[in-house]
Amino acid sequence: MIRFEDRDGFQAALATLPGNDATAIDAAAARQASLTKPAGSLGRLEEIALFMAGWQSREYPRADRIRAAIFAGNHGVSARGVSAFPASVTAQMVANFQSGGAAINALAGACGADLVIVPLSLEQPTADICEAPAMTEAECLESLNAGAAVVPEDCDLLFAGEMGIANTTPAAALCLHAFGGEAQDWTGRGTGIDEVALARKTEAVRVALALHASHCTDAFETLRRLGGREIAAMAGAILAARMMRVPVLLDGFICGAAIAPLARDNPAITQHCLAAHCSAEAGHARLLEKLGLNPLLHLGMRLGEGSGAAVAAQLIRSALAAHAHMATFAQAAVAGAL
Ligand SMILES: O=C(O)c1ccc[n+]([C@@H]2O[C@H](COP(=O)([O-])O)[C@@H](O)[C@H]2O)c1
Ligand SMILES: Cc1cc2nc[nH]c2cc1C
């Protein structure tokens, strides 16, 4: 299991990311070229098969062991009226996840993922990012390690999701810091706020940046100041997955925002990631573009909790089923292209 010893250990891991296996990609590409279809006719499903082959070092990659990890945290900034829901909903939804009644329970079941729910000190919200750093150094490190701990040794695919009332506010702040622009470029309606609350939320993002930006010198410090526990946990899980060369499906806006500070330090962090979908949250399309990721799905979803990733995991399974089970031209005695 991966564990980051301290902030330097986290930053060192981010600076020395392993790459994929070009030999496995070549072998998988040769197999794709031999299958009974015009070259490229399975479109992105072919790319997915090669992507999975490269990270798993397998000519025949698998999606049998899928780990879905949902992290939950509370946010001091929720007291500013930036969400359509009260902060108490975070713990209530965790209870719903635990009793099997949430969307992610149904969707993780449908894609065959093994779901773990990780509540992170829900009784202790982060500090209001408009007034202070969200977390202490110890809290941030603990959250990163809670994320790293969910990646099993034998894992074919990981997806990380979140639950945290008000977390689209720190997510917007992380995007603004990583990629610039204006607060309104990154601030959306989250759970469904009105115009007045949107103005308050945009101002909160602006104030948080004014307070912290000059101190955000690396990914750890940025997550600590502008993030939240579940956000840092997703970042820790995604970095740990990379260290173990486990491919990752990113979920929605908050999940993408969690790696924005990592991408600022090392843009290669996205190489083992596929963007599951483009959320309806304003800012997600721009975020994916900045991360250099082309989302697999556009379903108008904006739920979070790993729901988009769970749907996209079915595409991964389809891509790998075609890759593994189709006949070759030679086996099926089908003539190749002229
Ligand atoms: O995944 C997304 O793109 C997404 C977009 C908007 C909202 N959410 C979810 O809604 C919550 C955050 O919204 P808010 O309005 O409370 O900041 C949090 O629990 C997220 O999982 C998620
Ligand atoms: C009900 C509810 C469910 C969620 N799941 C993820 N974020 C959420 C936010 C709310 C408000």
List keywords for this structure.
binds 5,6-dimethylbenzimidazole; Rossmann fold; 5 strands; binds nicotinate mononucleotide; alpha/beta; five-stranded parallel sheet
Write up what this structure looks like.
The protein is of the alpha/beta class and 338 residues long. It has one domain (61-319): Rossmann fold, CATH 3.40.50. The protein is built from 16 helices and five strands. It has helices at residues 7-15, 22-34, 44-56, 88-99, 103-111, 137-148, 168-179, 183-186, 195-212, 219-226, 229-243, 253-258, 260-265, 284-291, 307-325, 329-332; strands at 66-72, 113-119, 157-163, 248-250, 273-275. A five-stranded parallel β-sheet has the order 2-1-3-4-5, sandwiched between helices. The longest helix is centred in the C-terminal third of the chain and has 19 residues, at 307-325. The protein is globular. The structure holds nicotinate mononucleotide and 5,6-dimethylbenzimidazole (DMD). 5,6-dimethylbenzimidazole binds at residues 85, 89, 93, 163, 191, 303-305.
